[in-house]
């Protein structure tokens, strides 16, 4: 009835033997990224998406850094806004989730998914 979990990084291990069913899927996914999508194209598309998030957030009154990584943009709440943790809770409740959000050191980290 009780599931015991390991502490530390060991709790993330899958354990057991490698899944031979998953290996062909992993190889196909890596080939897709390396040969067709390419990291340059992925970064460019994510950069477009986070730049759009940054521009819209700035228009709403968030503090937005002048530069950010292609796949992540950090926001600070502006004057009169609820705390970041409250906004993250509200955004995380949206269905479907348009972006991934989390609270980091009093700010909001926004990561748009890439499909």
List the helices and strands and how they pair.
Blueprint lengths: L21 H16 L1 H21 L13 E3 L8 H9 L7 E5 L2 E5 L4
Antiparallel strand pairs: 1-3, 2-3
Structure, explained:
The chain is of the alpha+beta class. It has 3 helices and 3 strands. The chain has helices spanning 22-37, 39-59, 84-92; strands at residues 73-75, 100-104, 107-111. A 3-stranded antiparallel sheet has the order 1-3-2, with helices on one face. A hairpin with a 2-residue loop joins strand 2 and strand 3. It is extended.
Output the helix-strand order: HHEHEE
Nearest-integer average pLDDT: 85
The shape is: extended
Portion in strands:
5-15%
End-to-end Cα distance: 39 Å
Number of strands: 3
Strands side by side in the biggest sheet: 1-3-2
Q: Total number of helical segments?
A: 3
Low-confidence stretches: none
Rg over CA atoms:
19 Å
Report the helical percentage.
Answer: 40-55%
Q: Could you say which structural class the secondary elements and strand pairing correspond to?
A: alpha+beta
Question: The biggest beta sheet, please?
Answer: 3 strands, antiparallel
Features:
115 residues, alpha+beta, three-stranded antiparallel beta sheet, 3 helices, 3 strands
Short description:
The protein contains three helices and three strands; from the N terminus they run ααβαββ. It has 115 residues and is of the alpha+beta class.
């Amino acid at each position: 009835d009780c599931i015991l979990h390991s502490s530390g990084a060991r709790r993330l291990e899958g354990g057991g033997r490698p899944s031979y069913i998953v290996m062909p899927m992993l190889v196909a996914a890596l080939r897709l990224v390396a040969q067709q999508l390419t990291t340059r194209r992925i970064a460019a598309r994510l950069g477009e998406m986070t730049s759009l998030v940054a521009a819209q957030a700035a228009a709403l009154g968030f503090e937005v850094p002048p530069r950010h990584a292609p796949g992540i943009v950090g926001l600070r709440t502006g004057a009169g806004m609820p705390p970041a943790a409250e906004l993250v809770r509200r955004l995380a409740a949206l269905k479907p989730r348009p972006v991934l959000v989390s609270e980091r050191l009093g700010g909001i980290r926004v990561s748009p998914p890439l499909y």
